[in-house]
Design brief:
Length: 272
């Protein structure tokens, strides 16, 4: 017995919200109705809509959209945790970005979200031993979204990459759940080290625009890195690092910086 799209949507709040908003968009902007219908409303679940949307973007002369979609579908079907992370990421963008008014605009247009979900497929390929295809996808993500995440990097769920242009995340980097970062963030090495050489960003961290975190160091959970800062030493949990090179501050910050997105730092609280 077939299950209706409406019944499936009711069991999936994120997909339900996405469909409802898409329906509204087709009425508000008829010129986009065909695009919105083909990308969202024609599909019976979020996974299918995502693979269709990403395949149309990532497909190219070397690898057709049809072939790209086969890869995307294979990954999503083989590893259900990818789809769980997609839902958490989409919710994170809607909840944290004051410019985002709906799930549908993030899903269709926000390149930070699209780059992150494309990375998730590349990471699946890397872990599965399909490294050439993972690197091909990394290259396409960089070309399309100006975001360069090595497919071996480990990214949690509920991550928001706001604006995203210029974000670089190295091979051995780890980004845990509920992290927020803005454009121009680099999680890189310090030179020609080999092995485990990239930062470990713990849960709930806020990395402001242009932050550079370099080396195999740890940014403790629920801490902050200020805009334009260069961090070369580990940052304890719940602290703020700011400056070049970054120093710790004692200013009272939020208990959930990645959620609150509060980037203001009181210079009077900066310690030496």
């Amino acid at each position: 017995m077939a299950v209706s799209v409406e019944k499936v949507a009711k069991c999936d709040p994120v997909w339900s919200a996405l469909r409802e908003q898409a329906e509204e968009w087709t009425t508000r902007e008829p010129a986009l109705a065909s695009f919105v219908h083909a990308t969202i409303l024609a599909h019976d679940k979020l996974e299918n809509a995502l693979s269709y949307h990403l395949a149309r973007k990532l497909g190219c002369e070397e690898l057709s959209p049809m072939m790209m979609r086969e890869i995307l579908d294979e990954a999503l079907e083989s590893d259900p945790t990818i789809a769980d992370a997609v839902r958490a990421d989409l919710s994170a963008v809607f909840e944290r970005d004051p410019a985002c008014n709906s799930h549908v605009e993030a899903f269709l247009f926000y390149k930070g979200f699209l780059a992150l979900e494309s990375y998730r497929i590349a990471h699946w390929l890397w872990v599965a031993g399909r490294k050439p295809m993972a690197l091909f996808l990394q290259s396409r993500i960089s070309q399309l979204f100006a975001v360069d995440v090595h497919p071996a990097a480990v990214m949690g769920r509920g991550i928001m990459i706001d604006h995203a242009t210029g974000v670089v995340i190295g091979e051995t980097a780890v980004v845990e759940d509920d992290v927020s970062m803005l454009h121009g963030v680099t999680l890189g090495g310090t030179g020609k080290e080999t092995g485990d050489r990239h930062p470990k960003i713990r849960r709930g961290v806020l990395l402001s625009m242009g932050a550079k975190v370099l080396g195999n160091i740890e940014i403790g959970e629920y801490s902050r890195v200020g805009a334009g800062s260069v961090v070369l030493k580990s940052v304890p949990a719940g602290c703020t690092a700011v400056g070049v090179p970054a120093k710790l501050t004692n200013c009272a910050g939020s208990k959930n910086p990645s959620q609150d997105m509060n980037q203001l730092i009181d210079e009077n609280d900066q310690s030496g």
